[in-house]
Amino acid sequence: MIRNYFKIAWRNLLRNKSFSILNIVGLSIGLSVTAIISIWISFELGFNQFHEKKDRIYEVYNEYFVDGEIWTWNSTPKIMGSIIKKDYPEVESVSRYNYDNTFLFSIGDKRIKSTGTMVDPDFLNIFSFPLVEGSIDKVLEDVNSVVITETFAKKLFNNEPAVGKTVKVDNVDTFKVSGVLRDLPNNTEFNFEFLMPWNYLKQKGWHDENWSNNSVATYVLLKEETNYDAFSQKIKTLRQSYDKESPEMETFLYPYTRSYLYSEFENGKETGGRIDVIRLFGIIAAIILIIACINFMNLSTARSEKRAKEVGIRKVIGAERPLLIGQFLGESILISTISGVLALLIVVTLLPSFSTLVAKPISLDITNVWFWLSAFGVILFTGILAGSYPALYLSRFKPSTVLKGTYKKISSPVTPRKVLVVLQFSSAIILITASIIVTQQLNKVQDRQTGYSKHNLIYTIMEGDIEKNYSSIKKELLTSGIAESVTKTNSPITETWSNTWGVEWKGKSEDNMTLVHRLAADDAITKTMRMEIIAGRDFDLKTYPTDSTAAIVNESMVKLMNFENPIGQIVKDNGIDWRIVGVVKNFVINSPFQKVEPMVIEGAKAWFNVIHIKFNQKITTAESLANAEAIFLKYNPEYPFNYEFVDQVYAKKFDTEKRTSSLISLFTLLTIFISCLGLFGLASYMAENRIKEIGIRKVLGASVQSITTLLSKDFLKLVGIAIVLAVPISWYMMNKWLQEFAYRIHISWWTFVLAGLSALAIALITVSYQAIKAAIVNPVKSLRTE
Amino acid sequence: MLLQLNNIFKWVNSGGQRIFLLKDINLSVQEGEFISIMGPSGSGKSTLLNVIGMLDNFDEGEYHFLNESVHTLKEKHRANLYKEYIGFVFQSYHLLDELTVKENLEMPLLYKKYKSSERKAMVADMLDRFNIVGKKDLFPAQLSGGQQQLVGVARALIAIPKLILADEPTGNLNSKQSEEIMELFKKLNKEGVTIIQVTHSEKNAAYGSRIINLLDGRKTS
């Protein structure tokens, strides 16, 4: 019997090729979208979750009440870790995690740059990063010991055993490899190739006990019996007893398992984070799958008249209803299985591209039993869900009615089908509007005037002997004609690395806690960056040696300080009086989506990390780079010459929004496509149902055109309703989305007109095919009975 | 006695009026009879046939089929009854388009849960008996009307029913094909199958042993 079902189902598929293709394509798109999104979601949900003690791991956070708002952040003073370990018996272990350090490792002639960090010895006890060689308790004991990953070990020592070998770090310190770590999985936030003991930081004099320098992460492993809530109350006041420098701050422990998905705070409350995106796309996946399933039902019932006869015959020759239900379910399960196989192919083919699109290393683990179980589950569920309506509906027909050929379905004004079309097209219109608005917003921000010139501008991080030989390098770059201008700064021009509310100026009110960004530049900053000076002048150390304590401020800063003439005024920061010599037009340094914040550019007396070089326009970039490299290698022979083009770095600021934009466009296309399938099914259903009516109308003299209009009109009405529903929803949603950006477009009315018109056009094309097909049928054919 | 209808009424309500489809029908059929039901369009021939075949309900009266009171039976029992004892032949054949001749014949047996070996034997037997072995792997669309109806009759017969109900079995056939089918019916009747057919043709009706005339839902003879 089962074999018979599948035989018939298979032949039915072949006999109705266009119908089957519509069904299978629609369903496999639905399934593959759901699968891809599920794989992505399960990757995101599994992120950071592999640590055995994950439920006891916490990250130390601070809370601070300022300007009527609670600020929350997770960097801590270096000393905090040891204090927690000392003062709280509830804590099993603590590890600090320094920000990323990049060092040059050398063995003989081999030089490899690598990024890692310094941690407390307990780090490997807290987190599950298994050692391939070495023992957890000993590897980070000695100051000059280093633990490296397998890949890094291979890079350094090829296939020779690494443990016990020595490497030179930054040409100064000699380290002994004490252990080898298995390579980090791709679902962890950590990204280190080596770990060094915290004591090395102390040895180098990089450690400080300054409570106002919040720069490292601190992780805490609570003892198993510790009650989190009680402990939270206890640790809240940690800073009160030690921290005399910063304003009143509270300390709290944030569960490490939530750090990846949540950890966005607003006014002291956790407001979400990545989980929002995951939820959004989860909903989109569900909607697409449901739409695809309902389409399937639609398309199946659309052929009900034909199938009705079959049901009649089968009943007459002895089929019982359960058997018929089984048959129809068998058919839909067959279709969903085929779609499932197709979807699997689509997933395998498209997952790498999707992985690039969302910038996550997601992949399909085909050895995972859960994957197959859920895949089969979904296929079966979809088959049953999609087949249930036709199965139950068709199997109810009475043979005496359907075999007489008098069977006709009476249409009611609001059928579920119509509601479905409205829903499908509403989502399509919402998505079309969203893609238009996201693209507009992206274009607007990309076209934003940055306030400086990125052209021919590169930067390089100072390392090794660069700082020492800076003046020689600069001199040579300028005299050889490679560079037009060279400036040392504390951070690249594409981001600030430092900010403070501690800057003071005359007349600043006590409670003014506005954050001011710091940049530092030794000389000729506005020349190198081609910034526009509004008042005063650029730094010029040659002419004005006192410029080492001069400052340039931006427009926002002038507004904040509220000076009529800011030139000559003093801003106090880090115990130095910086005298303002110039004002520059606001320029974009952090997010181009936000407004420009107040900034002070401090003079040559500050700290520096980066060199910016404006290349000579007359020389090709390739030539400039080659010449610059030669100069850098001459003065800093141990290090390779690394540089970044400012325009490329700046372009990366749009990655997230570009990703959103492409994802939304992708889902828009899919939704439109699936909606069209649904509409197509509905139109064919209607054409089949009204075939007699059309025949009669034609006999009475109706033209093809008038019949096409008659048939299409109903559907366009539905799309009209969809537009009415979708416009306010999409306006509300997109308006809310735009609120995130200080620099944003205004939503214009034509966006909705465009979205509505395209939906109408798409619907018209889909429907008119069926309508015309029905309208040109010879009435002799449609009116003939049996 | 195979079946007996006593005072059968069937009606529909339309526009506040009751329209009778069958009015006070009394009929008893003995095993081995070959009955032709005749009458003009709309006289209730097909309705009567459907009522006898238990595909349609009636509103009043009694129907006994092989000692069972059909009018008191539940839908499901009724279905079981007709599945077991009645074979149907239709004017437009009503073969399953997706199945081959062989599979069409096998279908009723599948529904009656015959074993595979039994089914094969019965299908082969039937193909043989109707001389359509050569056509067993063809689909209905590849056959002529007469051949399709031959398959239709074979399918009605395969589960060895006591009664064959044929609703204008030759309505879509030409005269030669008609004659063949009627001869077949005659032969089957001789072999002991009870047949009730609806027909417009006097000539076809003459094959039967008894003619029932209907007019406006009433039996006139």
Write the layout of secondary structure elements.
The complex is a heterodimer of chains A (786) and B (221).
Chain A (H helix, E strand, L loop, with lengths): L1 H14 L1 H30 L10 E10 L2 E5 L6 H8 L3 E7 L3 E7 L2 E10 L3 H4 L4 E3 L11 E5 H8 L8 E4 L3 E9 L12 E4 H6 L13 E6 L5 H8 L2 H5 L6 E7 L8 E3 L2 E4 L1 H29 L1 H13 L4 H38 L10 H26 L4 H4 L13 H31 L10 E5 L8 H10 L3 E7 L8 E3 L3 E2 L10 E5 L4 H5 L3 E4 L13 E5 H7 L8 E4 L2 E9 L14 E4 L7 E6 L5 H15 L8 E2 H6 L3 H35 L1 H9 L4 H35 L10 H27 L3 H5 L3
Helix pairs in contact in A: 1-11, 2-9, 2-11, 2-20, 9-12, 9-20, 11-12, 14-20, 14-22, 14-23, 15-18, 20-23, 22-23
Chain B lengths: L2 E12 L2 E13 L4 E5 L6 H8 L7 E6 L2 E2 L5 H11 E4 L11 H11 L4 H14 L15 H14 L4 E5 L7 H16 L3 E5 L3 H4 L4 E6 L2 E2 L2
Parallel strand pairs in B: 3-8, 3-9, 6-7, 7-8
Antiparallel strand pairs in B: 1-2, 1-4, 4-5, 9-10
Helix pairs in contact in B: 3-4, 3-5, 5-6
Question: What's the short version?
Answer:
Chain A is 48% helix and 18% strand.
Question: What does this protein structure show overall?
Answer:
The complex is a heterodimer of chains A (786) and B (221). In chain A, the strands form five sheets. In chain A, strands 17, 18, 19, 20, 21, 22, 23 and 24 form an eight-stranded mixed sheet that branches. Chain A has a six-stranded mixed barrel with strand order 4-5-10-7-9-8. In chain A, strands 1, 2, 3, 11 and 12 form a five-stranded antiparallel sheet that branches. Helices cover 48% and strands 18% of the residues of chain A. In chain A, α9 packs parallel to α12 (369-394). Chain A is of the alpha+beta class and 786 residues long. The model of chain A has no long low-confidence stretch (mean pLDDT 86). Chain B is of the alpha/beta class and 221 residues long. Chain B has a single domain, classed as Rossmann fold (3-Layer(aba) Sandwich). Chain B is 35% helix and 27% strand. Chain B has helices at 45-52, 75-85, 101-111, 116-129, 145-158, 175-190, 202-205, and strands at 3-14, 17-29, 34-38, 60-65, 68-69, 86-89, 163-167, 194-198, 210-215, 218-219. In chain B, a hairpin with a 2-residue loop joins β9 and β10. Chain A binds chain B through residues 1, 4, 7-8, 11-12, 15, 309-310, 312-320, 323, 398-400, 403-404, 786, and chain B through 46, 50, 53, 55-56, 79, 83, 88, 90-92, 94-99, 103, 107-108, 110-112, 155, 159, 172.
